[in-house]
Amino acid sequence: MRHRKSGCKLNRDSAHRTAMFKNMARALLTYEQIRTTEVKAKELRRVVDKLITLALRDDLHCRRQAYKVLGSHQLVQRLFDEIGPRFEGGQGGYTRIVKLSQPRTGDCAPMVIIELTKKAADAPVKAEEKGTSPEKETSKKAAAKAPAKKKAEEPADKAEQAPAAAPDESGTTKEA
Predict the structure, then answer these.
(1) How many CA atoms lie within 13 A of 30 on its CB side?
(2) Residue 78 CB: number of other CB atoms within 10 A?
(3) Are 40 and 123 in contact (CB under 8 A)?
(4) Suppose 104 and one of 68, 109, 121, 159 were both cysteines; which one would form an S-S bond, judging by CB atoms 3.0 to 4.6 Å apart?
(5) Under CATH, what is the fold of the domain 14-118?
(6) Is the pLDDT of residue 127 over 50?
């Protein structure tokens, strides 16, 4: 009987299964969206949601637990500094599974896209954090356009000066 046994075996031994989910968790946190089968995505959701919950607590012990799964200091830092703060105030529901219309070629397995619910572009970016205010950005754009207009006027001035130094009948130019 299968009492008190959670998760799917996915036709793999435990070492292969844990390695696969570690790799998939790394890919999902790196690219924020991956394409996989439906059953793998449902199992991966459990792993990634636990990692994001660790990122919300943000202490040394949580960072070490996340490192055990991710195995990369840069990815742990990204999880705790960029991804975790996006989900402040929420309890769960950090990932979304979207079913694709076409099954996988060969074995007809149902395919899905698993992604983080809050993307980097969705996160509000304050002007103070960015370092420039919207007024400064518009003035920079206006300043960039002004020299472009001056450059466009300069060739017209040179064209007016060119007939003044026209060559004479012998083919030489006379300068004033």
Answers:
(1) 13
(2) 16
(3) no
(4) 109
(5) 50s Ribosomal Protein L17; Chain: A, (3.90.1030)
(6) no
Domain ranges of the chain: 14-118, 129-157
Side chain identity at 158, as an amino acid letter? K
Tokens 């012990």 belong to residue: 61
Query: What pLDDT digit, counting tens, does each position of 132-168 carry?
Result: 555 555 555 555 555 555 555 565 555 555 555 556 6
pTM of the model: 0.67
Closest-CA residue to 25 (of 15, 36, 14): 36
Determine contact, residues 83/64, Cβ cutoff 8 Å. Answer: no
Burial 118-137 (b: 16+ CB within 10 A, else e): beeeeeeeeeeeeeeeeeee
| Cα 28 from Cα 95, distance rounded (Å) | 10
- Give residue-wise pLDDT tens across range 75-102: 999 999 999 999 998 888 999 999 999 9
